[in-house]
Amino acid sequence: MKILRRAAAYGVCRSATGDVLLTRGSDASAFPGVWSLPGGGIDQGEHPDDTVVREFTEETGLAVRITGVRTVLADLARLPDGSVEHTDRIIYDVEVTGGTLRHEADGTSDLAEWITSTEVAARPLLPFTAGVLGVTFDTAGLGDVPAGEPERTGRVQRFGAYALATDPAGRILLTRIAEGFPGAGLWHLAGGGTDFGETPEQALARELYEETSQKGRIIGLAGISHRYDPAALGPEGVPLDWHVIRVVYQVSVDEPVAAAVTEAAGGSTAEAAWFTREQARNLPLTELARDALVRTG
């Protein structure tokens, strides 16, 4: 059984009367006739913010601006060819700034419509769209789901979950990147790539414990970022077209313990530690850690 991974961005857009904008899958899509929030796959090297704006224009003719990040999801779907696809989905709230509503031609959608809240439940919806809009949907299982990760080629798109973690005293939890890994010696947010079939929240809890020995509670979303490095070197110096998409959560560690790495030797984390904000300010930080700290003051 073939396994696939993709990352995508979608937008919830409502009219002044509360209608929601949806698009219908065309014959060129995996699920023809099924309705979805406008959006689609994140191109290699593209920021998810740019994806949702681009996809809205392509599928609906409308220009939109982002007003917030609503949620981040992950799900599995069995495709018509029998393969199983894991999709990480970033869901934004957006509002229309211009353009004229029209249908997409020769794409993966064929209709774009404003739909009232009473009509939404009567449409066949992709499960993630139904969940975001609060519509009950069938949660039929996928049967046996293959283990492992999709085969990597020369182009890599990785989805990761990271923690901007603090304790009741206001200290910040950081990890130092081990030698032999990109950013060696810099202090970073705890977290890492999500596994096949794993939600971002599950990945975050796993990574937080493996890298720092902490158990935390997600209290909000701190932001979405990405890093594109087309010249990155993979194992044995093999070049990779590397693109990482990152969701940063605000995490409260209500009962902190001494920070210690529990993952197996040879991992990317050399050590973990708690710092005051003043101490963190003077550390050599990764751009992800620095930007997250700046955004939260």
The largest sheet has its strands arranged as 4-1-6-5
Count of discrete structural domains: 2
Mean pLDDT across residues: 92
The beta-strand count equals 14
The helicity comes to 10-25%
Number of helices: 6
CATH class of the largest domain: Alpha Beta
H/E series: EEEEHEEEHHEEEEHEEEHH
Specify the CATH architecture of the largest domain. Answer: Alpha-Beta Complex
Output the CATH topology of the largest domain.
Nucleoside Triphosphate Pyrophosphohydrolase
Q: CATH superfamily name of the largest domain?
A: Nucleoside Triphosphate Pyrophosphohydrolase
Characterize the overall form: globular
The value of Rg in angstroms is 20 Å
Strand content: 35-45%
Distance between the termini: 47 Å
- Structural class estimated from helices and strands: alpha+beta
Report the sheet with the most strands, covering strand number, pairing sense and barrel closure: 4 strands, mixed
Characterise this structure.
It is a single chain. The protein folds into two domains: 3-133, Alpha-Beta Complex (Nucleoside Triphosphate Pyrophosphohydrolase); 157-295, Alpha-Beta Complex (Nucleoside Triphosphate Pyrophosphohydrolase), CATH 3.90.79. The termini are far apart. 17% of the residues lie in helices and 42% in strands. The chain is globular. The model has no long low-confidence stretch (mean pLDDT 92). The chain is α+β, with helices and mostly antiparallel strands. The strands form four sheets. Strands 4-1-6-5 form a four-stranded mixed beta sheet. InterPro entries: Nudix_hydrolase, NUDIX_hydrolase-like_dom_sf, NUDIX_hydrolase_CS, NUDIX_hydrolase_dom. Belongs to the Nudix hydrolase family. Its cofactor is Mg(2+). This is NUDIX hydrolase.
